[in-house]
Design a protein that fits this description.
With 334 residues, the protein is of the alpha/beta class. Helix content is 42%, strand content 18%. Helix 1 (2-15) packs across helix 2 and helix 5 crosses helix 7. It is elongated.
């Protein structure tokens, strides 16, 4: 799958230098939705001859490049407030919902067997829990043979919307984390090794025994990682499955007036996976003609891309939300 995605990305980039009759649109930003954007772009080119060249550089990079008008659209998993959008002269809408999973590489510990309380996850990433056989982990995993090995934390090294949503979840799970580290696209990590993009963290997990990290669920599936069982906001154990992602996503509430600003982690419900997040598109207000071309792509994706989203482990937006987004487009792009 990774080879397929890399090939699609290469096709999109190489085609920009080729001669063809369609539009050429450049976007950059979040690595969280990159597998899906590559898939959508590949199908869009087949059907329309138009090229979407998307670069997975992290949400921080996407915000920077669209703010400086280097690309035609930016992508971020950390939504901007109405004030931030006004200052940068941008508009914003969600494209799809995904989830962040806590993955690990520990010999003998299978997928969906390791249980980690949300507060325990926070303490691991804060460097307070350093061994796999720490009492706090053993307490919920008496049936597992946890090794007497040091935990190697893998985290993002770049400005990341995945990190923003993950630290939002950690802050909601641990007062200690909230008061010490808080929420951010980039933070001063207490421990661990850093990788660029979900791709970089995935590579670190794959190569490093006894490691733990956080990635978008599509990267978990592509790399055949093992994921931890986490707890809902109400304290029920919940696995990283499509059904549990959807259970959390149904609580999403966006409004046009707030430019769809919303954080989706730690939603209510006994089956709601705790780290669900939307990913957003940013467009410059002063480029209506290019924006209309970009919106043709996302309208195409909204109409034809749900199967791709499901295949890659994302949750497509509800039809009612898509229609609200279309109303927002009509109001904000003339």
């Amino acid at each position: 799958m990774l080879k397929q995605i890399a090939s699609v990305a290469l096709i999109a980039a190489v085609t920009l230098t080729s001669s063809f009759a369609g539009d050429k649109i450049n976007g950059a930003g979040a690595s969280f939705p990159a597998p899906l954007y590559y898939d959508w772009a590949y199908n869009y080119k087949k059907d329309t001859k138009n090229v979407i060249n998307y670069q997975s550089i992290g949400s921080g990079g996407g915000i920077k490049q669209i703010t400086e008008r280097i690309v035609d659209f930016g992508a971020t998993d950390a939504p901007l407030t109405t004030k931030q959008l006004a200052e940068a002269k941008l508009i914003q809408f969600p494209a799809v919902i995904g989830s962040i999973v806590v993955v690990f590489n520990v010999a003998g510990i299978a997928d969906e067997t390791l249980k980690l309380k949300n507060s325990v996850v926070a303490d691991i990433f804060a460097g307070k829990i350093t061994m796999w056989n720490d009492a706090a982990i053993v307490a919920d995993n008496k049936d597992l043979k946890l090794p007497n090995e040091k935990i190697v934390v893998a985290h993002r090294s770049d400005g990341s919307g995945t990190t923003y949503n993950f630290t939002y979840y950690l802050s909601g799970s641990s007062e200690s984390w909230k008061n010490t580290y808080g929420i951010g696209k980039a933070i001063n990590w207490a421990v661990g090794i850093g990788g660029k993009g979900n791709e970089g963290v995935s590579s670190l997990i794959k190569q490093t025994p006894n490691s733990i990290g956080y990635v978008e669920s599509a990267f978990k599936e592509q790399n055949h990682f093992s994921a931890a069982v986490l707890a809902t906001a109400s304290g029920k154990w919940v696995k990283a499955t499509d059904e549990n992602f959807k259970a959390a996503a149904k609580y999403a509430s966006w409004t046009k007036e707030d430019n769809f600003y919303a954080m989706l982690a730690l939603q209510p419900g006994d089956t709601s996976y705790p780290i669900v997040a939307a990913t957003f598109i940013l467009l410059p207000v002063e480029k209506p003609e290019m924006n209309k071309k970009i919106l043709k792509f996302f309208d195409y994706a909204f109409k034809s891309g749900d199967a791709s989203a499901k295949k890659l482990g994302y949750v497509a937006l509800p039809e009612a939300t898509k229609n609200t987004i279309r109303e927002y487009w009509a109001t904000n792009i003339k």
